[in-house]
Amino acid sequence: MPSASETYWNNFQVNPKDIERAYAYMVEKGETVPIAELARTVIGARVQEEQERRSRLSSEAHLYQPKASYEIGQRLIFSALDDVEGTVTNLRNSENPRLAPFQIIQVALKDGTTREFAAAYTEPHPLNEVKPAATGAADESPDEIYARFGSNIERALTVQLRTDKEFVEQDGKWLLRDALSEIDEFGLNIIEAAIEQNNSAMTTFGLARVLKNDAGMNLDLDGPKRDTTLFSLDYALRRDERFVDVGPQSETRWFLNRLVPADVLVTPRVLHFARGVRVENELPPELETILSEIQDDNDADTWSDNPPTTVNLVLTYPHRRAGSLPLTQGVRALFPHANKPMLVSLVDEYNVRIPAWVVPEDNYVYGLKNWYDKHKMNSGALLELAPREEPFTATLRFQPRREGKSLWVHTAKVENMHLTFGNTPRPVAFKYDEEMLIIAEDQAGLDKLTASNYGDRPLDLLLLDVFPELVKLGGGSSIHAKTLYSAVNFAKRAGARAVFSALVNNPAFSMTSGGYFVLQQMAARAV
Amino acid sequence: MPVGRLTTKSKFHIDVAYWEKQGRNFRQEVYDALCQECKSMYSLEDVREVDYVDPVTGQVTRIDALLDCASAVCSNAPDFINPKMPLTRSIFRAFIAAGNLPQSAEEIYAHINKGSPQIILKELLSVQMESEGVTSV
Questions:
Q1: Pairing between strand B49-53 and B59-64?
Q2: Which of A143, A175, A268, B20 is the most buried (most CB within 10 A)?
Q3: Can you give the residue ranges of every domain in chain A?
Q4: Hey, is A460 helix, strand or coil?
Q5: Any chain B CB within 8 A of the CB of A124?
Q6: What is the pLDDT of residue B3?
Q7: How does pLDDT run along chain B (137 residues), one tens digit per residue?
């Protein structure tokens, strides 16, 4: 059976007095207040109110009920009037022909007023049902109440405050609307120009300094109103569609909406993941080893608190075509946590800064198309990302290779809307993974293939399509798992674990040593 | 809560003194609105105040007997406030049904179930309601 405290606080409902207390607290504080602080204020007030009520009830004051009779000198508590206490000073008979006779008591209330109340009243009245028993509101300390029921109280308070236009909310903090610093159209225009000139995301504080120093606005950035100023600026920017927050979860950083690349707002089709893939958590040890060398690219990655460290990646076709990188667990560790597109910088070995967008929803980092073109990159290229001291930046490296004599490399092309491969001599200007190097030969055809529903078939079927095409290139009937992974990505973006799982789970394929697979029907045909 | 800014929680009533100043008879207006039961209990000429018990606090105030009857008896009659009535008339009747005790737009809305608290607040502040003596308290 729940305790009185549990019953009271589990059924907590916000009343107008709670809102008034929150309002008064915020007026007094004059700055932004987290919801936790408001919840504690409400809890504290309710506990105190109940304690006072209990002490009054125990000091021989009676709870007023219209049905009861009273005598001059009796002390009463009026629950419907915020538990104000009063003393009966006079009695008289009622006068209303519509009602049965009752008594009227005159009461001198502690607030200094004198009022009349019904007594010995036989008509139904809700106060007759009020029990004089104390509630469980003050059975525990405010800290204990907050620890046990705080989240519930915060939720109820948040819902109620959101319906009241006097309060404004942002990132779990609240401010009175009247306390918002005014950021006018002129100020917003200055901010737009500043971001454009900076050509990079700017913090709220940085923008506030621009307003203060360049636009001469009277903003408190160092005094007690600093938080309120920044809150107000964030509030104004969020309501202006010219601006977008491109910061991590913990920090607001502003950029211009019109400068956000379309491929950040809408994931390019070439980066859509293969659907309905059954992914095994545990692969054969050989494949796990291979996987650990190339990093998985999948849509189930989440942020972890792993320390940032150097990450080695092998470029795959979807990322080469889109100008992106996979946002693997290792890559995520290089940047702060984000739940929406975040603007970062990648710095290459020539110290060139490349603006890039972390897009956590579809697991990619966008903005490298020109860089890939400039360095003549292709799928199979070895890339390295490394942490840097400067926040929101990481180092991006590849290993250049003297192009010299052309190499015989695998190429991908399309014939009759069907993915196929060939061997062609080509110069290669970067170090690469030998099993994964495949160069796009027919880009227009590959783009048409991406736009078609060719890649929407199950990964198993795509692998069954791709495998014989790779065997045709010569070099035996067995194909390395990494080659299949790289090749099938020309049809549809799929992570290495997903591809390896599809190979392991499909009885048409069997694994030989060293991470190689054979296609059973082909093997049988060969015998 | 903010002072001097009217919201859907702000209380309004009919200012009877305004009717007197305009030379109009508020009691006549109330009497005309009364249901048959109250009309049989009181006449227009029967000017008297009675004890009215607040349904929430139990506090007793002295109010005109016609208003008391309207609030206790007529307000329960289905036709006293009906959906076909114009909104301003429904609001006026809601004040009579409450014994002309101060009411907010939200409370009136809960009673007449017409429009919305915001629409009722707008009506309460309209010239038409002002001419009926409706004012904030």
A1: antiparallel
A2: A175
A3: 4-57+136-174, 66-129, 180-259, 294-397, 407-526
A4: helix
A5: no
A6: 40
A7: 334 578 899 999 999 999 999 999 999 999 998 988 899 989 988 889 999 998 889 999 999 999 999 988 988 888 889 888 899 999 999 999 988 989 999 999 998 988 899 999 999 999 999 999 999 98
Task: Kindly state whether A97 is in contact with chain B, defined as any CB-CB distance less than 8 angstroms.
Answer: yes
Give the Cα separation of A167 and A178 in Å (integer): 9
Q: State whether residue A307 sits within 8 Å of chain B by CB.
A: no
Q: Yes or no: say if A390 and A404 are a contact pair by the CB < 8 Å rule.
A: no
Confidence of residue A526 (pLDDT cuts 50, 70, 90): very low
Handedness of CA A487, A491, A492, A497 (dihedral sign): negative
If DSSP states are collapsed to H, E and C, what string results for A20-42? HHHHHHHHHHCCCEEHHHHHHHH
For an interface test with B, the pick among A67, A70, A92, A96 (most B C-beta atoms closer than 10 Å) comes out as A96
Model confidence over A276-300: pLDDT tens digits? 676 767 889 999 999 988 888 877 7
Nearest CA in chain A to B9: A16
Q: Which residue has the higher pLDDT, A498 or A137?
A: A498
Interface touch A64/B58, C-beta < 8 Å: yes
Q: Which residues of A touch B72 (CB under 8 A)?
A: 98
* ipTM score: 0.80
Q: Is A121 part of the contact surface with chain B (CB cutoff 8 Å)?
A: yes
Q: How far is CA A143 from the centre of its chain?
A: 29
A178 in contact with B, Cβ within 8 Å: yes
Per-residue model confidence (pLDDT) at position A263: 96
Q: Please say whether the beta carbons of B91 and B100 come within 8 A.
A: no
Mean of per-residue pLDDT scores for chain A: 90
User: Which backbone phi and psi does A457 adopt, to 5 degrees?
Assistant: -75, 160
Domain A180-259 class, CATH top level: mainly alpha
Among all chains, which residue has been given the structure tokens 């209380």? B11
Quote the CA–CA distance of A61 and A55 in Å, as a whole number: 9
Quick check: B107 contacting A, CB < 8 Å? Answer: no
The third-level CATH classification (topology) of the domain covering A66-129 is: SH3 type barrels. (2.30.30)
Mean pLDDT of A340-353: 94
* B99: nearest Cα among B2, B10, B23, B33: B33
List the single residue in A66, A96, A125 with the smallest CB-CB distance to B68: A96
Number of cross-chain residue pairs from A and B with Cβ atoms under 8 Å apart: 65
Under an 8 A CB cutoff, do B53 and A125 touch? yes
| pLDDT at res. B1 | 32
Q: Is A134 on the interface with B (CB under 8 A)?
A: no
Residue B60 has its nearest CB partner, among A80, A116, A127, at A116
The fold of the A294-397 domain, in CATH, is At1g16640 B3 domain (2.40.330)
